[in-house]
Write a structure and sequence with these properties.
244 residues, alpha/beta, 4-stranded antiparallel sheet, binds adenosine-5'-diphosphate, ATP binding, ATP-binding, transport, ATP-binding cassette domain-containing protein
């Protein structure tokens, strides 16, 4: 079966006001989609259509109002919360802004290693060191970069650091939320190539979220188009974008 199977997922946000009725925003409205292992699945849609809400639910950082998320056949939100915490080890996220998402006071090695320290299984210091070096190299950085601080790197290199941090635990699914939107155009292509290469070499599955149609057309195998909380179209990228 698919790695990720999202079934009729809805999320309401209720804003309570002191006076007057509560206001309900249906941020996600019965979204269903599947993502196969090793696939890059793009989610596109304009700001406010529900992309981040979907990302948070897939990462199990939030709970749905209705519907299910099956990961590797397991109904995530039916699990006891302790079990759900363990399942989160399968997911990592890459964010838009590599300036905001990397702690400037820490060395790169520490930043990249961080997800290893929150695993239920405690890796040895030697394993942590080996994995950090291996992962830095897999994103085109060097072992000696571990000693430096984020401000010594360019935007594209910082996003490589953020990607290394997301991959260091070998997660089965990476949710990338606008991972190249804050980068210069010439650097965007390099980071997109890196992600495609990581899928090829390591079999990483990506849910790739963006408002940028050209970017998703370039990187995604299949695309889901969102509009006002609903998934209005799904298909291979060439079909959704009507290329021959
Ligand atoms: P983006 O479009 O990049 O997702 P937004 O500016 O829409 O960014 O949202 C940024 C953050 O603010 C998100 O965590 C989102 O959940 C939250 N947010 C967005 N809209 C509202 C709202 N109406 N009330 C409260 N929080 C909101
Ligand atoms: P996107 O990521 O596509 O910009 P979001 O998932 O952030 O969209 O938001 C979808 C809708 O839900 C928007 O109308 C937004 O204002 C609203 N929203 C998001 N987060 C919150 C929140 N925490 N509280 C209230 N409304 C929210």
């Amino acid at each position: 079966g698919p790695l990720l199977d999202i079934r009729s997922l809805s999320r309401d946000y209720v804003s309570r006001t002191l006076f007057g009725p509560a206001h309900v925003t249906r941020a996600l409205d019965k979204v269903s989609l599947t993502v196969e292992a090793g696939e890059i699945f793009g989610i596109v849609g304009e700001s406010g259509c529900g992309k981040s809400t979907l990302a948070r639910l897939v990462m199990a950082l939030d709970r749905p109002t209705a519907g299910q998320v099956f990961f590797a056949g397991e109904d995530l939100f039916a699990l006891p919360s302790k079990e759900l915490m363990r399942r989160r080890e399968n997911f990592q996220m890459v964010f838009q802004d590599p300036f905001a998402s990397l702690d400037p006071r820490q060395r790169v090695g520490r930043i990249v290693a961080e997800p290893l320290h929150v695993l239920a299984r405690k890796p040895s210091r030697a394993e942590i060191r080996d994995r950090v070096v291996d992962t830095l190299e897999s994103v085109g950085l060097k072992a000696e970069h571990a000693e430096r601080h984020p401000h010594e790197f360019s935007g594209g290199q910082r996003q490589r650091i953020a990607i290394a941090r997301a991959l260091v635990t070998e997660p089965r699914l990476v949710v990338a939320d606008e991972p190249v939107s804050a980068l210069d155009l010439s650097i965007q292509a390099q980071v997109l190539n890196l992600l495609m290469d990581l899928r090829q070499r390591r079999g990483v599955t990506f849910l790739f979220i963006t408002h940028n149609l050209a970017v998703v057309d370039c990187i995604a195998d299949r695309v889901g188009v969102m509009y006002r909380g609903r998934l209005v179209e799904t298909g291979p990228a060439h079909q959704v974008f009507e290329r021959p």
